[in-house]
């Protein structure tokens, strides 16, 4: 892979001010991306998070040469994505959102055929197909017609097809959708393995535990812009604390609790996001009021809800 | 327009498509139903015209192969998004289009070969007629596949595609003199029939087999337009494949 070797110093992906406006026939004009900038270093695993319609798929499709941006610039290992897609394509592989394998091939044939079409020799393709299918836990169904597989198994075939390429840069759009918790962990493990071997991964997911466990950095996209960027820990910091105190039926303490941090209600439970310093005071307050309270870490999901929610409020306000 | 064609990956993708189609062997069979039914009608009502109907069935079958390309290209793009896997890869867009077209052709070849054997039994072809048959049918395939691929790229869901595919099949396969000989066609419209790839292929094959007579001018018109249309559409197909590998 000549491009790969030539450019040891450049980023795997560099996007600057990428914007995209859709002008679909007979539909309103949609500004899906309004200037997204992002950098992926070689060997990184990065997740894009964001609500439905935030622009994640649009960004992935532009980066993977499948969609033209309206403006902005992108480079994959130093190659211009817009001007020279033919230089970028050998370096990437894509799991499209809601993609499906060929129904009338076996998973083994599907992976093998795809690797062959990418110019990989027979012996290597055979070996890699077996390896990828094994990693995705598909050994037992590898020689059955794909149409007879379950939904999650079909999705595993898509992921197996793409990870078997070992392409330098992989784009995975909701790769674990519909997978059981075991299968998801198999995907995470193979992603880690791929990046150890030098590949770079950009994925999207709505499972925030997955994003936290799998990716080294996150970008939260909201309304076509990058809302926040950083590690899961740093993003959690931005919501004003790393701990969450949950007080069951705590409505009557809401006002007092709010002096310690930010309140998020969830049914009758009042959740307080705070730091470790004043935990004792807060617990005492709850106990004295005769209420049950528990302390736990703030999850990425809570941070996400808080940050994106704040941004929606600001837009509306 | 189609300069610098890169065929990386084409052979592998062709094999993939042939494999996929052969698993749907029922579709290969049902793809021959209209031809079989028309052959039976002709056999019952006008057995003397059976050889003509066979030539027509051959051209129609090959035209249908191109319409399978329309359906397959649309289906694996709209329902499976497999085009994204192949376009975001070292395989060139033209390999995707040509690999799919040739792969489907290979899968649909057995019924075509069967019809050709029937024709050979009923009306033995000389070497010139046999070569004319092969060349004309290849031109129809190229025309129809490229047209099918081009049309497939214009739709976002399968339901809107079906009527177009059936419109094209009837327009090119049933209305012009394909299943019936040119001399039954309104004579003032004969040049038009020679401009339509399906009916011109039939006229040229039947002329080479001594089944119809065409003036030298008509031969030039038929052969010239068939070759030009096939090459033009093939070039356009490659152009469409490249352009649509990335959406605008
Ligand atoms: N082909 C298209 N034509 C017109 N608008 C589109 C098209 N594709 C996406 N959009 C619009 O662009 C915006 C971003 O869509 P996109 O698919 O990128 O979102 P997403 O973040 O991937 O969402 P999800 O989490 O639901 O997958 C949405 O408002 C969507 O309606
Ligand atoms: Mg999406």
What does this structure look like?
- The complex is a heterodimer of chains A (317) and B (248).
- Chain A is an alpha/beta fold and 317 residues long.
- Helix content of chain A is 36%, strand content 26%.
- Chain A has a 6-stranded mixed beta sheet, with helices on both faces. Chain A has a 4-stranded antiparallel beta sheet with strand order 2-1-4-5. Chain A has a 4-stranded antiparallel beta sheet with strand order 12-13-11-14, covered by helices on one side.
- In chain A, helix 4 packs across helix 5.
- The longest helix of chain A has 17 residues.
- The model of chain A has no long low-confidence stretch (mean pLDDT 93).
- Chain B is an all-alpha fold and 248 residues long.
- Chain B has one domain.
- Helix content of chain B is 76%, strand content 0%.
- Chain B has 11 helices and no strands.
- The longest helix of chain B has 30 residues.
- Chains A and B meet through strand 6 and helix 4 of A and helix 1 and helix 5 of B.
- The structure holds adenosine-5'-triphosphate and magnesium ion.
- Magnesium ion binds next to helix 2 of chain A.
- The site of magnesium ion has 4 residues of chain A, from helix 2.
- Cα-atom radius of gyration of chain B: 18 Å
Poorly predicted spans of chain B: none
Approximate strand percentage of chain A:
25-35%
Structural class of chain B: mainly alpha
Could you describe the largest sheet of chain B, including whether it forms a barrel?
none
Number of beta-strand segments of chain B: 0
Helix content of chain A: 25-40%
What molecules are bound to this protein? adenosine-5'-triphosphate, magnesium ion
What multimeric state do the chains show?
Answer: heterodimer
Distance linking N and C termini of chain B: 19 Å
Q: Nearest-angstrom radius of gyration of chain A?
A: 23 Å
Secondary structure category of chain A = alpha/beta
Order of strands across the biggest sheet of chain A?
Answer: 6-7-8-3-9-10
Mass-distribution shape of chain B: globular
Greatest contact between two chains:
A-B, 34 and 30 residues
In total, how many domains does the architecture of chain B comprise?
A: 1
Task: Write down the secondary-structure element order of chain A.
Answer: HEEEHEEHEHHHEHEHEEHEHEEHEH
Q: Judging from the principal axes of the Cα atoms, what is the shape of chain A?
A: globular
Instruction: Describe the largest sheet of chain A.
Output: 6 strands, mixed
Q: Helical content of chain B, roughly?
A: over 70%
Q: Residue ranges of chain A: pLDDT <50 for 5 or more in a row?
A: none
């Amino acid at each position: 892979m000549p491009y790969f070797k030539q450019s040891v110093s450049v980023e795997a992906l560099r996007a600057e001010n990428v914007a995209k406006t859709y002008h679909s026939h007979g539909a309103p004009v949609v500004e899906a991306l309004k200037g997204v900038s992002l950098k992926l270093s070689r060997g990184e695993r990065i997740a894009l998070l964001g609500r439905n319609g935030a622009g994640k798929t649009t960004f992935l499709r532009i980066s993977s040469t499948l969609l033209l941006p309206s403006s902005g610039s992108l480079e994959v290992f130093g190659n211009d994505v817009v001007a020279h897609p033919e230089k970028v394509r050998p370096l990437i592989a894509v799991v499209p959102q809601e993609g499906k394998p060929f129904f009338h091939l076996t998973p083994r044939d599907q992976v093998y055929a795809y690797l062959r079409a990418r110019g990989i020799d027979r012996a290597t393709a055979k070996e890699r197909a077996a390896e990828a299918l094994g990693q995705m836990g598909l050994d037992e169904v590898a020689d059955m017609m794909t149409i007879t597989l379950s939904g999650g198994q079909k999705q595993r075939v898509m992921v197996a097809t793409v990870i078997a390429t070992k392409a330098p840069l992989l784009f995975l759009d909701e790769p674990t959708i519909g997978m059981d918790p075991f299968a998801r962990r198999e995907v995470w493990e193979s992603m880690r393995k791929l990046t150890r071997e030098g590949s770079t991964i950009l994925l999207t997911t709505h499972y925030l535990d997955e994003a936290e466990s799998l990716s080294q950095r996150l970008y939260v996209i909201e309304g076509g812009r990058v809302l926040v960027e950083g590690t899961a820990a740093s993003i959690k910091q931005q919501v004003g604390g790393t701990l969450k105190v949950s007080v069951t039926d705590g409505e009557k303490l809401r006002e007092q609790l709010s002096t310690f941090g930010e309140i998020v209600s969830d049914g009758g439970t009042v959740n307080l996001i705070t730091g470790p310093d004043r935990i004792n005071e807060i617990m005492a307050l709850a106990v004295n009021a005769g209420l049950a309270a528990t302390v736990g870490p703030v999850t990425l999901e809570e941070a996400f809800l808080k940050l994106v929610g704040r941004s929606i409020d600001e837009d509306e306000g | 327009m189609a300069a610098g064609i890169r065929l990386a990956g084409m052979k592998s993708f062709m094999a993939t498509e042939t494999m996929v189609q052969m698993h749907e062997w029922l579709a290969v069979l049902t793809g021959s139903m209209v031809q079989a039914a028309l052959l039976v009608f002709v056999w019952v009502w006008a057995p003397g015209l059976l050889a003509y109907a066979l030539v027509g069935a051959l051209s129609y079958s090959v035209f249908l192969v191109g319409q399978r390309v329309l359906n397959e290209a649309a289906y694996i793009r709209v329902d499976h998004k497999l085009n994204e896997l192949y376009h975001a890869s070292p395989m060139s867009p033209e390999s995707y289009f040509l690999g799919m077209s040739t792969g489907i052709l290979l899968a649909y070849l057995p019924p075509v070969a069967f019809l050709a054997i029937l024709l050979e039994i009923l009306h033995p072809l000389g070497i010139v007629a046999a070569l004319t048959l092969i060349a004309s049918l290849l031109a129809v395939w190229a025309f129809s596949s490229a047209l099918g691929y081009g049309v497939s790229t214009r739709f976002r869901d399968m339901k809107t595609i079906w009527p177009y595919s059936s419109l094209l099949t009837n327009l090119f396969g049933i209305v012009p003199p394909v299943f019936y000989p040119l001399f039954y066609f309104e004579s003032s419209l004969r040049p038009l029939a020679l401009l339509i790839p399906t009916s011109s292929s039939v006229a040229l094959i039947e002329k080479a087999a001594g089944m119809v007579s065409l003036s030298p001018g008509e031969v030039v018109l038929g052969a010239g337009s068939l070759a030009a249309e096939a090459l033009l559409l093939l070039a356009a197909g490659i152009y469409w494949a490249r352009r649509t590998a990335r959406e605008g």
